[in-house]
Amino acid sequence: MNDIKIAFIGGGNMSSCIYDSIIKNYDAKNVTVSGPHLEKLEKFKAHGSLITTDNVKTVEDAQVIFLGVKPQILTSVLEEIKNSKISLDGKLFISMAAGYKLSSIYAKLETHNLIRIMPNTPAKLGLGVIAVSYDSAVTDSEKDLCKKMLSHMGECIEGDEQSLNVIGAICGCGPAFVYRFMESLISEALRNGIAPNDARKMVEQTVFGSASMVIKNQDTSIAALREAVTSKGGTTFAGLCKMTEGNFEQIMQNTIQASLDRTYEFEKMF
Ligand SMILES: NC(=O)c1ccc[n+]([C@@H]2O[C@H](COP(=O)([O-])OP(=O)(O)OC[C@H]3O[C@@H](n4cnc5c(N)ncnc54)[C@H](OP(=O)(O)O)[C@@H]3O)[C@@H](O)[C@H]2O)c1
User: Fold this and answer.
1) What does the DSSP 8-state code read for residue 69?
2) How confident is the model over 176-213, as pLDDT tens digits?
3) Which of 130, 142, 185, 219 places its Cα 20 to 30 Å from the Cα of 62?
4) Ligand 1 close to Cβ of residue 174 (< 6 A)
5) Residue nearest to atom 36 of ligand 1 (CA)
């Protein structure tokens, strides 16, 4: 199984992240990466992988093919593969394209041996969430293979395509929402006279420490952790009251809904 031939169509940011996970378990010599600019693929060659500009030959020689191009390029790549008339029997396609449904890939390739994944950027550190959704022909051993390939990127969460969209909105977009929250805490630290280096450090450590408290106290609800730092009439209580007055929950609901609505708009485009 470790001799399996793996291909990446497109060797950009997310393909690189998946590649780094794969070569921890699989021989880089069995991986081929194709893209229009060979000079941008040198890092894969340095690991011993093949690089090429020939997408069709790359697909033809592989058993597992990661589709790593931008969604707006994917249609032309799928047509290129289909029009080449190579046999797709026994090949497993794994698409990471946001908003590009399994049924839209099927419409081009006419194979149900398809998996959609939606990783988030912390996957680069092995701390990601990867939503995974399978089409009808994917076998249990192919599901296990896919999860093994992604295992060094973080936690895989399997579900239908609707849950993949929701995970995409919460975990894919989520880092930006967390960064925005951190930026606003840093702004407040600066506005109140803290030095820039200290402001960043203290906010980093507060978010990291709080997330660690949640992770290391699985038997305690997050609400209970919040209550443990909130005495009635105290300083945290005063701050939380302002969040309630400012409709924090409603803002988050609107935020996630806006990301989901945009996902549905993208789905209609492909
Ligand atoms: N980045 C993320 O955080 C993230 C998260 C979840 C999902 N995704 C999905 O991952 C996919 C790739 O995103 P990315 O951020 O990795 O983009 P990216 O860094 O721009 O990578 C896209 C790659 O596709 C290559 N490419 C362009 N046209 C091609 C063609 N005709 N044939 C083969 N390769 C071609 C590009 O090569 P050149 O640079 O040489 O043009 C580039 O290496 C997207 O579908 C995106 O929705 C990304």
Assistant:
1) S
2) 999 999 999 999 999 999 999 999 999 999 999 999 99
3) 130
4) no
5) 10
Give the residue from 40, 70, 36 showing the smallest Cα distance to 55: 36
Position 1 pLDDT exceeds 90 = no
List beta partners, residue 132: 117, 158
* Domain region containing 232: 174-269
Under a CB-based contact definition with an 8 Å cutoff, are residues 267 and 116 in contact? no
Instruction: Kindly state if the Cβ of 10 falls inside 6 Å of ligand 1.
Output: yes
Check whether 2 has a pLDDT greater than 80. no
Q: Residue 199 and residue 115: Cα distance in Å, rounded?
A: 43
Q: Which pLDDT does position 16 carry in this prediction?
A: 97
Q: Does any ligand 1 atom lie closer than 6 A to the CB of residue 9? A: yes
Q: Does residue 146 share a domain with residue 75?
A: yes
Q: How far is CA 201 from CA 177, 191, 213, in A?
A: 19, 16, 18
Q: What is the pLDDT of residue 262?
A: 95
Q: What burial class does residue 172 get, using C-beta atoms within 10 Å of its C-beta: 0-12 exposed, 13-18 middle, 19+ buried?
A: buried
**Is the shortest distance between the CB of 34 and ligand 1 below 6 Å?**
yes
> Are residue 66 and residue 104 in the same domain, yes or no?
yes
Question: What pLDDT, on a 0 to 100 scale, did the predictor assign at position 60?
Answer: 97
Q: What is the CATH number of the domain that holds 87?
A: 3.40.50.720
Decide: helix, strand or coil at residue 115: strand
CATH number at residue 201: 1.10.3730.10
